[in-house]
Amino acid sequence: IFGLLVSKKRSKLILSLAAIVNLGLLVVFKYLGLFVTTINSFLPAGSAINAIEIALPIGISFYTFQALSYVIDVYRGDTKVQKNFAKLLLYIAFFPQLIAGPIVKYHDIDVQLEDRDPSYVDIRNSIFIY
Description:
The protein is mainly α and about 130 residues long. About 65% of the residues lie in helices and about 0% in strands. It contains seven helices and no strands. The longest helix has about 30 residues, at about 10-40.
């Protein structure tokens, strides 16, 4: 959504909102428990805030920074906005790339996402890699 909005208006406000939402989700999932525990250490006994137990999604930092780098690339004009939500999700969730190294920008792999023609043999080999 932020990619579509920022591609139409090139607004710093939209870019800032995208950063706040993405990093806000990261803070909630990763650091909310720490914040509540820290606040509770300063409160008098019996007035502690109940900490919500939130399961941490695997790879949330990577997903967050992938999504944010995409919006920044669209804002800068380095890449065109991806209107196919499935292809954008594939870029964000491209986990083999995520665990291999640094964040890969969307414009580095957009051609590979667009021009794919997998054969039966490619799909079979992908499923049965060992």
